[in-house]
Design a protein that fits this description.
alpha+beta; 3 domains; four-stranded mixed β-sheet; three-stranded mixed β-sheet; 14 helices; 12% strand
Length: 522
């Protein structure tokens, strides 16, 4: 496997150098065109003959400017690219307690891939189905999945998607694709600035040929225009071609790590038929996802302009693996399906042994009730990262309140009891939600709506005291159960540990901030 990583690094270095050469060539041509570097010609019988005595100084200056621009963008991408990508995608970190199954799956695939450190896990605030990986190196990588993915995929399908993204981390694809994407962006930016400058300066006659060398300058401008139009196209095609081959390699890694190719195949089938639109995706981040959200199945995009192989081909290759799982078996399936041109696996990977295909997880054939339960868990997780406040009624109903909820109590939709709302906790959640709104550019509660959500539905604001003033609820009165250190429980479920000081008469709940009055038992 180490040879696979080294081969991937060598190919990456060659492609990065090729993209850099294209970028510098563009800078040279544009710099030469924008500077009057042609000497004047002579007239012969009223005919002007230009003299092409070319001075490359302006071209070298253009190369230096292009390289400096790329260096600035590459530095930002290298040191902050993962954070920027996660922020743009509205991804927020989650812990094991938030979704134990996802955490367990990532742990399993980390061990299977022999990563030195488990990637951080992020949840994307969206019900569309997708996922991506990011990070400079395996030691600081991250895997981000959408809430919809957790709700609609069973365990085997989720494991296949996570293994695909971890394969990108193992193969060092994430950083390479980020750097190539930055180069493509630099080439597009330089070309766009040059073409726009010609548009705005054309009317002034700056590039009109006079009788003293303007004809030669015009030739350079035409060459620069053609190069500025073609260079971004070539760079984008290279970027897409490299991305397509790496997707095949990551699919192979997913099959090997999970020992169950059907998991990823079934997941790709579900994702490709999803009708939800990933709101946070854009042209820069779309190629990072497991399925390009801007080029779903059935799109009219030509093969050369696809950042991913057709989903139908990927599914057919995975389901064509037979007689065990290995990189060699995956390459055989590629050849049988006519996609052998995409096989870029080195010999060391092909020499690895074949392992038997495991049985499907029981969750893969779960009834509809389990699917509905996954959707509820995904919805609760989405509300949790959006700072919803969860209350428990005495009848067992869980009520979810948005962070901008301002009533003092809410009616339980099951037993019609009036449940007190911990105002301090809701106010703290609202403050956190406002910070997230300012940093991420969108408030997570917009999708959930201004409703108090119960375990089986939503309670409209008409059933709560929405006009009640935002005042602190009366303090909770408790008796210290015994001398010395002791603990009491607040109405919100928070536990307050009391020191042995007898003079302590009042404290605040560490969870909701409510006041608790303490008295000694007689």
């Amino acid at each position: 496997m180490w040879e696979l990583i080294r081969a991937n690094k060598r190919r990456s270095a060659v492609l990065v150098l090729a993209m850099l050469a294209l970028l510098l060539a563009l800078g040279f041509v544009i710099g030469s065109a924008l500077a009057p570097s042609l000497a004047a010609g002579e007239f012969y019988d009223d005919y002007y003959v230009p003299s092409f005595t070319f001075d490359p100084t302006a071209g070298f200056i253009g190369m230096a400017i292009a390289f400096a621009l790329w260096m600035c963008q590459a530095s930002v991408a290298y040191f902050q690219g993962d954070s920027i990508l996660l922020a743009v995608s509205r991804a927020r970190p989650i812990q094991r307690s938030d979704h134990p199954q996802l955490y367990n799956v990532v742990e399993e695939m980390t061990i299977a891939a022999s990563l030195p450190k488990m990637p951080k896990i992020y949840l994307i605030d969206d019900m569309a189905l997708n996922a991506f990986a990011t990070g400079r190196k395996p030691e600081n990588a991250a895997v981000a999945v959408t809430a919809g993915l957790l709700g609609k995929l069973n365990r085997d399908e989720l494991q296949g998607v996570v293994a695909h993204e971890i394969s990108h981390i193992v193969n060092r694809d994430v950083m390479f694709m980020t750097m190539v994407g930055i180069m493509v962006g630099s080439i597009v930016m330089i070309s766009e600035v040059f073409l726009r400058s010609l548009r705005f300066s054309g009317s002034s006659g700056r590039y009109r040929g006079d009788k003293k060398g303007g004809g030669g300058q015009l030739i350079l401008i035409v060459i620069a225009i053609v190069f500025a139009i073609l260079a971004p196209i070539f760079a984008q095609l290279i970027y897409f071609a490299v991305s397509r081959k790496r997707e095949y390699l990551a699919d192979a890694g997913s099959a090997v790590f999970t020992r169950y190719p059907e998991g990823l195949a079934s997941a790709l089938e579900v994702i490709s038929t999803d009708t939800e639109i990933l709101q946070s995706a854009n042209r820069a981040t779309a190629p990072m996802y497991i399925v390009n959200p801007l080029q779903q199945a059935g799109s009219m995009a030509l093969g050369l302009t696809r950042s991913h192989p057709p989903v139908e081909d990927r599914i057919r290759v995975l389901r064509g693996i037979a007689g065990g799982v290995s990189y060699a078996k995956y390459q055989d399936a590629l050849r049988r399906t006519g996609a052998h041109h995409a096989a870029t696996l080195p010999r060391s990977a092909l020499r690895q042994g074949v392992v038997p295909i495991r049985e499907a997880h029981p969750d893969a054939v779960a009834p509809i009730a389990t699917t509905a339960q996954r959707m509820r868990q995904a919805g609760d997780l989405l509300r949790k990262v959006n700072e919803f406040v969860f209350l428990s009624c005495a009848c067992g109903m869980r009520i979810k309140l948005p962070p901008d909820f301002k009533a003092e109590e809410v009616e339980c939709p099951r037993c019609q009891r009036h449940v007190a709302v911990p105002v301090a906790q809701v106010a703290a959640a609202a403050a956190v939600a406002n910070v997230l709104h300012e940093t991420a550019g969108t408030a997570g509660t917009e999708k959930m709506g201004r409703t108090a959500v119960g375990g089986t539905g939503a309670v409209p604001f008409a059933k709560v005291k929405a006009d009640a003033p935002l005042v602190a609820p009366p303090p909770l009165r408790v008796q210290r159960p015994a001398p010395g250190w002791s603990s009491v429980r607040c109405a919100c479920g928070g536990v307050l540990t009391l020191p042995p000081e007898p003079e302590l008469k009042e404290a605040n709940c560490p969870r909701c901030g409510a006041r608790i009055q303490i008295s000694r038992a007689e």
